[in-house]
Amino acid sequence: PRCIWLTRHAESEDQLSGILGSHRGELTKNGRNYCRELSAFLRKCRREMEEAGQVETSGDILVLMGTAPVHYSTLQSMMIKGSSPSLSSDMNGEMTPGGAVHCKGFQAMSTSLLNELDGGVCNGLSYAEIQNDYPDLWAARDRDKLNFRYPNGESYKDVIGRLRPIIIELERQRRSILVISHLAVQRCLYAYFTGTPMEEIPFLEMDMHTVAELRPGAFDCEVRQVKLWE
Ligand code: F6P
To answer: Are 27 and 12 in contact (CB under 8 A)?
Structure first.
């Protein structure tokens, strides 16, 4: 049966400084190591699918991701020559937002639907700065994290709404899919497939450098957490 793999993008330098909506693309050393492990993990899964004769019927693995530079960095770092020959062979490093890349065994596509919950006026700030500069917003979010919408930004409910086309695509596809997104987006996708109540979504743990492997069935969804790097 096909898999849906959910992962957050690899750790970035911006993320380490704790700011919201970090969209630049420099990965940390741990982030680059994760990309190498993720690439090896996918190639192993693809090999197993080939051995089981599933590739003929289900086709290439689809990689879906957002349009932030950190997504391209994650994908490109997965394709570094030597670390992933099967991916790098047809890949010349050209990626544009909304573009698709096809390489042996994999097809990658990006869409802004998978970008992180928009922090609006708080983008670029840390939690400590928000608490200090916007105490009313901080308190309102604390009271109702699910419905709280950042001014000029989004709420969890907004993100759930915008992910509908992605969910339809994930339900429709017969091939295995890796989704590279962010914390809030991954919480929403994970909750949909596992039937987690909506109120719990903003508080779900989604570890870094870990793949949530989902196998949706007719009545339930098998879940396996695969920690690939620290
Ligand atoms: O890891 C940082 C981040 O993805 C932010 O960009 C985002 O605002 C946040 O996590 C979402 O988590 P929470 O809703 O718990 O603040």
So the answer is: yes
pTM, whole model, 2 decimals?
Answer: 0.92
User: 137 CA to middle of ligand 1, Å?
Assistant: 15
Q: What is the pLDDT of residues 24-54, one digit of tens each?
A: 889 999 999 999 999 999 989 988 888 888 7
Tokens of 149: 């919408």
Backbone angles phi, psi at 177, to 5 degrees: -135, 135
- The string of pLDDT tens digits covering residues 109-162 is 889 999 999 999 999 999 999 999 999 999 999 999 999 999 999 999 999 999
Q: Which of 116, 204, 207 to mutate to test ligand 1, by most ligand atoms within 8 A of the CB atom?
A: 116
Around ligand 1, the residues with Cβ closer than 6 Å are 15, 20-21, 116-117, 119, 182-184, 202
